[in-house]
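Submission sheet (multi-component)
Chains listed below:
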Amino acid sequence: MVVRKLSVILLVALSALLIAKTTLTVVEVFTSPERDAILKEIINRFEAQNPGVKINLISPPYETAYQKIYTMVSNKQPIDIVEVGDWSLSTLASMGGLENLEPYIAKWDGAKYMLPNLLEFARIYKGKAYLIPNAVYAKTLFIRKDVLKKYGIEHAPKTVFELYGMASYLTDPRKGQYGYDFRGKGYPTDFIDLFVTSFFNDIDPNNMYLTKDGRLIWDDPRAKLGLELYVKIFKNAAPKDAVNWGFSEQINSFVSGIAPLLYQDPDTLGVLRDNLPDNLYETDPLPLGPYGKAYPHYGFSGWGIVSYSKHKDLAWKFIKFFNSPEILSYWCKNYGVLPPDMRVYENDPFFKSDKYKGWIEMFNDPEHYQFTKQPIWSEAWGKWTDLQERTTQEILLGKKTIDQVLKEWSKFWKDAGLK
Amino acid sequence: MRKGKRVLRFILLTVYLIFALFPLIWILLTSIKSPMEVYAFPVKYIPSHLTFQNYQRLFNYAHFGRYFKNSLLVAGISSSVSTILASVAGYALARFKNKWILPTVLFLFFAQMIPAYLIMIPQYVMFSKFNLIDKLSGVILVYSGIGSAFSTIMARGFIARIPVELEEAAMIDGCTRLCSLFKITFPLVLPGLSAVFSFSFVNSWNEIFVASLFLNSDNKMTVPVALYSFISKAGVNWGFLSAGLVVALLPTIVIFAFAQRYIVEGLTRGAMKY
Amino acid sequence: MERCRSEIKPRHPARFFLYAILPVLVMVSFLVVYPTIRGVIMSFQNYNLYNLHDVHFVGFKNYRTVYTDSRFYEDLWNTVLWIAGSVSLQFVLGFILALLMWEPFKGRGIYAGLVFYPWALSGFAIGLVWSWLMNGTFGVINDVLMRMHVIEYPIHFLSDPKWAMLSVILVNVWYGIPFFAIMILAALQSVPKSVVEAAMIDGAGPMRRLFGIVIPYIRPTILSTLLLRVIWVMNFPDIIYGTTRGGPAGATETLSVYMVNVVFYENDYSKAATVGVTILAILIVYTLIYIKTTSYEELEL
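Outcome: structure written.
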């Protein structure tokens, strides 16, 4: 009797040991209910393939996610994988929170299928990759075909001047109709930079704020021309209210048709899919400047391994799994971002639709579209986005002149050590 | 009251009701609209057809039921604890006279002044040392502590306003101190204490800063943090958020409706007379 | 009318007093005081995320950085406007609401449940919802006003610097009225009906009854709720952050919003702590002056 009881206990203990699970803790940044559902599905698949592994997903609210991750990492909270956005990469890496992934990449065949230069872009901190991109962001032009058609416009604007002409032609405040979805608050940096740099033809591919001969673009008279156009678009082609517009307001006015021309990232596709009939919108390449150039940049986010993680190999296994073409295709299709892996574009016809036209054409046209880097590795970057937002608002409200502000910007970057 | 005055009062109360309610009405309407209509321009007020899909999704794939339970637990326990501690401390501060009263009260006011971001990092370091990260008990501790400071200030005021002569009179009538405390003082401060409780419940129910920093796992998430996470990089999911706000408001509205009975009627209904 | 406080004498007064207040004191000290001391120390260091491996004392460097920036003084002025505007309006309107609700009427319970709900919303949600309502292009308020032909063109509530501060204050007023209404309503219950009625028989008009009897009776509540609200509103960035993030061009940036911006944009916790210590110092000084001028005896709710 006693023996039987003992053996039962032993058996239970043994089986408990056998199914004892390794827990991998993953923290994401870009939390949203829709995205979490997609992420959980991928996690389920991984867990099914790897019995004994359990993934604990932490989804902090997006607005506080970066601060939370910094705090967790600096207090050595038990996490293994963090999602890293491009501009939190240097911060986390300089805290010593991220593992250098170069040894893993050297042995990984997925590396050679990454979009051209993407890994180079990811090596912004000391030339080493501290994350594997799982999503690529780049601004492109979204247009509301139905609204443009109503005004007799059949095609997307090809140049920034055409964009301005079209947008101001549409604008009629009495009817509540405007042209351009202006972004005034909440990190408007990309929008300003795109207009300014499109007036150049010699931007340094490694640093958007420098020309090829190493001068700050803010000292160049062409920067002034770019900003002038940007302000004109605000004055004549966008609601005055847009000084205070962030992402939500941009989406709101694009979906409602108030302004049919929108510069945005691919994850907008995920939002539009839920709110707008499919045949009403498409994407087109960004309008070009006077030299026939535009300088978009890759934004990216990806998975990094925490430097003090106890399960680094398993963490890498998850990242590798996530970055397989099949999973990436599922992920990008549902979430709306651009796949970082070229195989996905080739294998999946989904990414050939008119929803992706803007990016595909830009990727295939290096003569006009030169992808470049913003100096996000600089410690001053966060402060810069704050300053640029504030001072641009001051221009728009007539409190400062363009010349004054350009001087301020130039001084800021000189102080920050960018030449 | 004269008729003219009553009419004036009716008008003023109605005006305020509209002012207070219209955002809620907008939230309610948004929560039952289909996504396409949420963004309609010109603004569309009445949805062309009702849909409860936002509420369904709330409970299906955001585990809102669980968050709701967590929040009830956290807010319920911490506001009870802080109300009890505060009534005892408030009683002492109201009924005694000594040199410690002023410093204590000032200290409690001081605790209200501290900006959250000043203590965020040190608090986190401390909590991770005590292993209180990702524990509901840690959050309950913070809420009880923060709540008890404010609640003590409030409770002290309510108790001080009750004439101590009433307690003494009861004691002369043959009641013990404890009995006079429960028979006389307690019913009299009940309106005040229900105000204390409802305020501290509402504060804990809505708290977001501590909860979003100290709690990690999905199964420990509270309602306001869940609502906060409906704001993503890609903007706000209005339908979803509105439905969540409506659900999150229910317990607090119930608490206020109950508490106000004590707050405004407690004394007038009771047998106590001045 | 006599102040209704007098002493009681338990057997071990000192011990009873200590036991009664100790739990609260210990909890608050543990949760607030210790971290505050650490926070103050941090403001004299160079604690930012880029140099966690080399945190050391830098003297008053952070204070010099903050106080030599004109932004600090603009924000200080905005803070004064924000507090004075929102607290005074909340108080006056909350007081009126409490007086209106003092006399029982049919459905008062439901009415209270309905009008008190703004206090039960999270700050971020208030900011978010109102920024939609107040939008200058597709906002509901403008739409209603235009349909009623009150205005011809939309008002740019949040994007016009002339309107922005007023708009965020209005939102805060909407949010804060219930607090004053509830507290004053509760305090009004202690005003003896007999005294008011006696004054009425003596022929005192409503204004004299209000200022001569009611207000003196609930003066302690008024004084301490006002103080508390000033303290809270000073430390309440949520509404402004949700509507304007301090914009346009800094027009609504208060010190507490500035502090959030320093954390979010600059990752410089020491600089943020400096702003935080400044907020704390201002509040301490304010409270001491407030108590001196109003006499502490009355400082109870």
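Remark: Confidence is low (pLDDT under 50) at residues 267-274 of chain B.
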